[in-house]
Amino acid sequence: MCRWLAYSGSPIPMDALLYKPKHSLIDQSQHAEMGAETTNGDGFGIGWYPIDRVAKQTPGAFRGIGPAWSNANLRDLSEHIRSPLFFAHVRASSGTAVQESNCHPFRHGDWLWMHNGSIRDFARLKRDLLLAVDPELYPEIQGTTDSEAMFFLALTYGLRDDPVTAVERMAGFVEATAAAHGVQDPLQMTVATTEGETTWAFRYSSTGQSRTLFYSTGVDDLRQLHPEVDALRMLSDDARLVVSEPLGAMPDAFNEVPESSYSVIHRGQDQMSAFNPR
Fold first, then answer.
1. Whole-angstrom Cα distance, residue 143 to residue 17?
2. Residues 106, 54, 114: CA angle, nearest 5 degrees
């Protein structure tokens, strides 16, 4: 499938997570250890919010169809862009075309969305799923992926007002549509979404065997455990990271997100709750 990470906290250069860790996201694009595929070379994307962001400002985005590991522009940008909240994604296509409009993260207004997983038999379900998208939102769909369809369904169900309920309704609708078509165990997802202030991360699958997802231990605790790691000094106490798989250097730095659950991360506070499709 794919690998992704979501960071929030003190502004840092994006390459601090994309390139520098032992098992960075760029390393995972070639050598993933916990994904359905080892290689995630069907495109990449980053989305970020500026340090001096004003309310409702559209986040920046850069996406490409080639493999992340060979893109010189991605390396250069990630060295120079500092951000307090950013998403990064490396893609392994589940069947849809390798094209820029299919690369994550997807963007609508001040919202970002990225996904690892799939909707089983999406081609069979696609028409019914997309017909449920709000007619005012439908023209903004640019690609052909199940991931973008999930995003616009969540927007239709009220993502901007109540993200958790919207994603639960989206997941429930996908499962109900699949059942009507005789498609079993249709949904596999780890999803992250944000409006630039709060990050929501979801782990769920219809089978109860979801793709991996991890969240970082508190930075203050890590400093005490690893005083030798200089990089921890650049992070604020409220820094948080959600990843498809750990970045390597400190095995005690990450905890697994429980099955069928979601996390809400806001200014160093995080809350974990059960996820129940509606």
1. 27
2. 15
Cβ atoms of 62 and 14 within 8 Å: the answer is no
Determine phi and psi for 88, rounding to 5 degrees.
-145, 145
Nearest to 173 by CA among 148, 154, 193, 198: 154
Residue 221 lies in a domain: yes
Locate 194 and state its tokens: 């944000």
What 8-state DSSP symbol labels residue 105? Answer: P
Tokens 């799939």 found at: 118
Q: Check which CATH number belongs to the domain holding 73 and give it.
A: 3.60.20.10
Number of domains in the chain: 1
Distance CA 96, CA 49 (A): 28
244: containing domain: 3-116+188-274
The answer to whether position 35 is within a domain reads yes
pTM above 0.90, yes or no: yes
Q: Please report, in tens digits, the pLDDT of each residue of the chain (278 residues total).
A: 799 999 999 999 999 889 988 888 999 999 999 988 899 999 999 999 999 887 778 999 999 999 999 999 999 999 999 999 999 999 999 889 999 999 999 999 999 999 999 999 999 999 999 999 999 999 999 999 999 999 999 999 999 999 999 999 999 999 999 999 999 999 999 999 999 999 999 999 999 999 999 998 777 776 676 676 666 677 788 889 899 998 876 667 889 999 999 999 998 788 999 999 99
Amino acid identity of residue 255, one-letter, is N
